[in-house]
Amino acid sequence: MSNVGLNNDHIDFITKDLYKRGLLLNDLKDEIIDHVCSAVEDRVKKGDRFIDAYNEVIESFGNTPGIQETQKQTAMLQNYFIVAFRNLKKQRFYTLINITGLAVGVASCLIIMLYVINEFSYDKHFTNYERIYRFNSEIKFGDNHLKMAVTPAPLSEAAQKDFPEVESAARFWNPGTRIFRRTTESFKEAHTVFADSSVFKVFDIPFVEGDPKTALKEPHTLVISKTAADKYFPGEQALGQMLIDNAGDSWKITGVMKDIQSNTHFYFDFLLSLITVDYNRDGSWVSNNFSTYIKLHEGADAKALEAKLPKFTEMYVGPQIKATLDLTMDKFRSSGNKFEFTLIPVTDIHLNSARDNELGVNSDKSYVYLFAAIAGFILLIACINFMNLSTARSANRAKEVGIRKVMGSFRSHLVKQFLMESILLSVVSFVIALAIAWVATPMFNTLALKDLAIPFGSSIFWLLIIAAAVITGSLAGLYPSFFLSAFRPVSVLKGSVAMGTKSGLIRGALVVFQFWISIVLVVGTIAVNRQLSYIQTKKIGFNKDQVIVIHDSYALKDQLQSFKEEVEKDNHIQSGTISGFLPVAGTDRSDDTLWPAGKTPTEDNMVSAQTWYVDYDYLKTLGMKIKDGRDFSKEFLSDSTGVIINESAARAFGYLKDPVGMKITMFDNPQLKTYHIFTIVGVVEDFHYESLRENITPVAIFLGKSTSNISFRFESKNTKDVIDMIESQWRKFSPGVPFDYSFLDDDFGKMYSSEQRLGEIFTVFAGLAIVIACLGLFALTAFTAEQRSKEIGIRKVLGASVSGIVVLLSKEFGKLILIAFALATPAAWFGIDKWLESYTYRTEIGVLVYVIAGIAAFGIAWVTMSFQSIRAALANPIKSLRSE
Prior knowledge:
Largest sheet: 13 strands, mixed
Radius of gyration: 37 Å
Helix content: 40-55%
Shape: globular
Number of strands: 24
């Protein structure tokens, strides 16, 4: 090797060997490698063999002060690790408790934080999302107050024309589900919407086939998702193909888009060209049915634009209010009424918008914060367990600390030793926590209706996990480290240091805090389930049981009445009704303005009411109760101009006595001031048709055509027979069209799905909090029994009973649980009261709920303590007194 330098293999060998020898300091490693390589290269050039040259250099280099310090630090680090591992192995019971509690806490925290991050990520995948806004509308007229996510049809065009800040605008119009077929087989598609061609300028939804610039520009064109394309055209190109809807109209596919991400506030598989529908050119500014979005120019000020909206509203809405109500906009507003448009950032919609006519089901920011707090609390409880057990075991390690100090250990060394144990425990717990979270995430997804996944492939995720493990271990071990390392060797070795339960004020406070959290969660769980039970059992004004709803009945076309009559021939069917207007959310809705006949419409006498269109059998089928007058009847031809109102409508019209026979008026065309007069033939008992969060508002029920659903009330012990019979008739009348049904009580329950999920999640995490807290209590009780084993032995020799010893060991922790209950009760009451404020109709949460929660927490804790206490009380006293 004479006169030759080092090659890459030599350098690689040197680097690896230096690492093995532990000679590389992180902040000097490059300098050390360069120094060694240079020295070896000099010797090789002089004629030495590489390996001999390297050994000589490394021998002399290892004696330098810097390398000696490195070796010393490496040895010390290895020593810390070995001692930490031995101590954890020696205390298997406490180590298992700590690892289990921390792992469950970390896994719970990780899953919830995945949920929280997902909730806050909605709509942020769109390019320039910070420039995208939606128009909202708010109308207050008399006692009626509407907050809507929809706006008038002409708003989009006017906004682009009048506001230079607007770069582009687009509308969605969502009339409901649609049935499509390619050949003979039909499919019901719930995720359909009409959209302007400019929608792809506002939202940059990627295309698989086609051009977003030209898609939806022509009538009877549509864009479908990749999932829909694979469903209708497996293995084929969908672009240019045709689909036929339930009305027989053909639609040409002009684009295939990637599936819309799940963290978007709307989701559609079919976007139909809005230009196809004449309604998109409706000129009314007082009819709100379109979701309108705008993208602002870069640098445009959204607040400045919003400040222009009152004048904009007056210019366009004012004339139509004047024509309808004969009121100027100023007079309209001065009377306490409101008609205004506002802007909401697209990223705020999912968590901050709960308006009527949302495109999707939004979440609630308060729930997200609540779950984040629960995650923090559970992790905190797990960390408290670690701190408690570490300080509680201090007496066992006091002599170790004393001997180490006498032998020359500095306090800083002891702190590092105890922190190493804490971090090692934390790292092991995090590894197990990842495994638990991986197994539990699918179950949580089912519970929360999410599609979360742990990002194992993300380097950032692993960096965060490693950092979290080290930080959690450091924080959890910080107090015990400084506490244990502060012992004075003289006191320790004399045996005067004994850290029992009574001296652990901090430990007691932490136990109180743990059970404070647990009791609050238990009370919250009981309260949520009480409200859900109240919702299910409250008198709602109609009979939701034993009613089957057949959806998309419009597909039967002119055979709908024949289908109804054929099904009603079955002995199990009591009655049937054709109407899309049902007293559950997600069905047809229509509202209009009515006033007493014979009077000029004014803001004082006009009533905004739901206007529903039904057939003769509607009230009978749904079990609604007539309070005054009668139901619609084919015997009265005049019922074509009759109306049935609910009690709220009777009060709003001022018809408190003898409302039957009174007349009300409704506009046919507000601009032309043409109207219809209807005679009240009956008053129906108030019924809930929206969530119990909302007040019951006026409803006017008319005879009319509404064909989206047909409902049957049945009487049968075997529901499947009824379903099979109806389905067979459906196949007979409408072959090839999918049969879709639900039960009215299930549809009613779906209105409270968020509350049901909240209750289930509360139950799970309240249970976890109690389990983790009890794990710590279990270990503390065991340690207390261990520390007082001689005392217990003496008491038994002197005649103490097992029950007496159990009470003695448990009563102190029992006092802590009672203190936690006393502190948790007002906090839980405040939180529950705030949550129930959102319900107009709500249950009463009495003292019994808090008593049950307190007894449950105390009972679980007592059982936990009693197990170890009984075990200690039954132990042979000879074993504990043998050395005395």
